[in-house]
Write a structure and sequence with these properties.
Layout (H helix, E strand, L loop, with lengths): L8 E5 L11 H9 L4 E3 L1 E4 L5 E3 L22 E5 L2 E5 L7 H4 L27 H17 L6 E2 L2 E2 L2 H5 L6 H10 L11 E3 L2 H8 L6 E5 L6 H6 L5 H4 L2 H7 L5 E5 H4 L14 H7 L3 E7 L22 H9 L5 E4 L2 H9 L1
Parallel strand pairs: 1-2, 1-13, 2-7, 3-8, 8-9, 9-10, 10-11, 11-12, 12-13
Antiparallel strand pairs: 3-4, 5-6
């Protein structure tokens, strides 16, 4: 039977990325002002071992690097988690070099208004993101408000570890420098890989979240020949395993309510109920307002960039008992959650 959630957590997916280029300090700050409970930076490594916030280590889509003649020779093709990818990669740049670049909108065809900010913002380090939160939360404490939390994701940790750029120690050290310790700290660390989270479970007490894709398997499973997929991890035995090292799951929407062939939402699965039975919280991803991303019955009239009924979609998922959700439009998510 469906259950209502008293206070679903609103997680600003890459900042207020429906309104500004993702993974910028400005985007995170706007998300905070819109009422997000957590901001979510994806983390990758620089050549000199610094954690920075980018959607991927390939930065051709999210910065102006392609227009910078001094870096043209660094364009290359690499294999990232088994897939060939051509572009420019953070691990080939020092932090000082990355700081000369500027962010740009990743999907301008769907978010043309965001492109007006192209060239305005730097690539932030994880420490800079935490410093932003530290300043914001000092002001919030004075007003008796709860702190805004941070929800970092380790991107391709096995890939970076194989290149001498292991992420775990740097991540834990950054969090501890800014006071994030213990189970009650306003932080979740998330990853699509299992081994990365198991290592982190031995290094920190902060809550960990196992991300579950709609298909495929964790890359470290693939490398090790482990046959288990994300679908397997979504079953009771897999959830019980996750509960031994993590506090929750970050579940693709399709694992909770699959879409039918016509693009509308189908019947819910038992994932939320079974995850709760295993003692895990459930945070769903990713909820976006544009028609392009919405189920057919919640789209508005018009083109893919037009905004439809995000609140209607969220209502279906929150009725399952989902504990929180990632969204590109935190203001709309906060209003939907409040209902």
């Amino acid at each position: 039977m469906a259950q209502a959630v008293a206070a679903p957590v609103v997680i600003a997916h890459r900042g207020a990325s429906g309104y500004l280029p993702e993974h910028t300090l400005a985007g995170y700050y706007v998300a905070i002002q819109q009422g997000a409970a957590y901001i979510e930076p994806d983390l990758v490594m620089t050549k000199d071992g610094v954690l920075v916030a980018r959607h991927e280590n390939e930065i051709g889509e999210t910065t102006d690097v392609a227009a910078r003649a001094e870096y043209s020779s660094r364009k290359t093709t690499k294999t990232i988690d088994g897939q060939p990818l051509t572009g420019w990669f953070t691990e080939d740049f020092t932090l000082a070099e990355l700081k000369t670049l500027r962010a740009k909108e990743r999907i301008p065809s769907l978010r043309p208004a965001n492109a007006r900010f192209d060239g305005m913002f730097e690539i932030p380090t994880f420490d800079e993101v935490l410093a932003l939160l530290q300043g914001v939360n000092a002001s919030r404490r004075e007003r008796g408000l709860k702190p805004v939390g941070v929800y970092p994701e380790t991107k391709h940790p096995s890939y970076f570890a194989a290149r001498g750029l292991a992420m775990e120690a740097a991540l834990v050290a950054s969090l501890q420098r800014h006071g994030y310790r213990g189970r009650q700290a306003p932080v979740f660390i998330q990853s699509f890989e299992v081994g990365n989270l198991m290592k982190l479970a031995k290094m920190t007490d902060v809550p960990l979240v196992q991300l579950l894709g709609a298909s495929g398997k964790p890359w470290d499973f693939a490398e090790a020949g482990d046959p288990r997929t994300y679908a397997d991890l979504s079953k009771p035995a897999g959830l019980a395993m996750i509960a031994r090292y993590a506090s929750g799951i970050g579940a693709h929407k399709d694992l909770m309510i699959p879409r039918k062939a016509d693009g509308t939402l189908g019947e819910p699965t038992a994932l939320v109920r079974e995850a709760h039975a295993a003692g895990l919280v459930v945070h769903g991803w990713t909820f976006r307002a544009e028609n392009y991303f919405l189920p057919a019955e919640h789209r508005a009239a018009g083109a893919p960039p037009e905004k439809g009924d995000l609140a209607g979609e969220l209502k279906r998922f929150l009725a399952l008992g989902m504990d929180g959700f990632f969204t590109d439009q935190p203001d709309l998510g906060v209003r939907a959650a409040a209902r």
